[in-house]
Amino acid sequence: MSILIKNGTIVTMNANRDIFQGDLYIEGNTIKQIGPSLSVTADKVIDATSKVVIPGLIQTHIHLCQTLFRGQADDLELLDWLKLRIWPLEGGHDPESLYYSAMLGIGELFKGGTTAIVDMATVNHTDSNFQAIYDGGIRAISGKCMMDYGTEVPKTMQDTTENALNESVRLLEKWHGRDNGRIMYAFTPRFAVSCTDDLLREVVKLAGRYKVRIHTHASENKGEVEFVLQDRGMRNVLYLEKLGMTAPNLILAHCIHLDEQEMKVLAESKTKIAHCPSSNLKLASGIAKIPELLDLGAEVSIAADGAPCNNNLDAFIEMRMAALIQKPFYGPTSMPAHKVFEMATIGGARAMGLENQIGSLEVGKKADVVIVDLDEMRTTPNEGVNIYTQLVYQAQSSNVLTTIVDGKIVMENRMLKTMDEAEVRRKANESLKRVANRVGVSLA
């Protein structure tokens, strides 16, 4: 199928950061032409007059498995949030509940212009998570959550080292590269608190052997940092460095409580940092020193995290929050809108190892494209206003009209195309009741 998007303001995010009025032509899953006025015919023509055409937004730390538990773990700090609510609920998933949790998240992401994610599934039923990614049509790196350590982890979430590794390899061999590379696998140990040395060391070896990403958490919470210091004898990032994990293929969520040495390790190793500002605020975890990390040359992208620690999967909220929370500490120019938009596009592509395929609108790249309507009261005036400030400070997910992933329209005029929205919501509500009853958790 071919698609011609006409007369839009095209925000390319190419090396020159070109912005111009014109057309974008998609053939199959690839951007074939971009220009001021293209003379081509297409199977479908979308009139983008007075609209803005942007690269699909990229979120590098998501838990689709937790979307079902939105609103069920509010006003708790991280470790209590995990032990009292999230781990028990995650452990209660069945294949159907996990599928609809993921589909619910994917639908929300599409409605907010997110086209690609790095996802951490739960310990069990991970095939259902991948099936939702396949059916829903989002571009994703995902993997089975690996947990083989911890006396306070519920039995439903406990795994052996051997099974965690074997099941991860099985899933990788089944799903990695599916649908012309739209679906990819990452090894996903949860964090040092719930993983043994043996597991993490083997993950490093396997990721190297299969040439895939590692996706985990670190230094999100002071209690977590203290636990790792006492249990492993060193601070979190230094411990990961000792294991050989800090490297360009590591995606490390949060990175709030770092000392200077740890920040240098992350920057010099080109470890990819996933910044989750709303989640960090809601769990009272803290504010990551993103301007300092960027000054050191660290590679930072952006994400919403999971619905229970954020209540939204909205990249526009995360962009605005990422820009605002640093200004009281580092000054009004510390996180300019254009830099934050880079984190949500080409920065996310680099984290996924896909900067040559997505993250910008350029000929030859994959057609992950979003059309945004900024012609309304909240985003007016449009004349003489910087487009990045409009996108970061003014736009909301409701401004997204059309979302295209890999050349396929997954949402058009706010209507989802790869799922029945009402059915997904109904099945999600049914699944939540079933899971909560199974594990004896009272719903909020």
Describe the structure.
This protein has 444 residues and is an alpha/beta fold. It folds into two domains: 2-55 and 364-416, Urease, subunit C, domain 1 (Roll), CATH 2.30.40.10; 57-352, Alpha-Beta Barrel (TIM Barrel), CATH 3.20.20.140. It has helices spanning 78-91, 95-111, 126-136, 161-175, 178-181, 197-210, 222-232, 236-242, 260-269, 277-282, 290-295, 315-324, 327-330, 337-343, 346-352, 387-394, 421-439, and strands spanning 2-11, 19-27, 30-35, 44-47, 52-55, 57-62, 114-119, 139-142, 145-146, 183-189, 213-218, 250-254, 272-275, 299-302, 369-372, 400-405, 408-412, 415-416. Strands 1, 2, 3, 4, 5, 15, 16, 17 and 18 form a nine-stranded mixed beta sheet that branches. The longest helix has 19 residues, at 421-439. The N and C termini lie far apart (46 Å). Its EC number is 3.5.4.28, 3.5.4.31. It is an enzyme of class 3 (hydrolase). InterPro entries: Amidohydro-rel, Deaminase_MtaD/DadD, Metal-dep_hydrolase_composite, Metal_Hydrolase, MTA/SAH_deaminase.
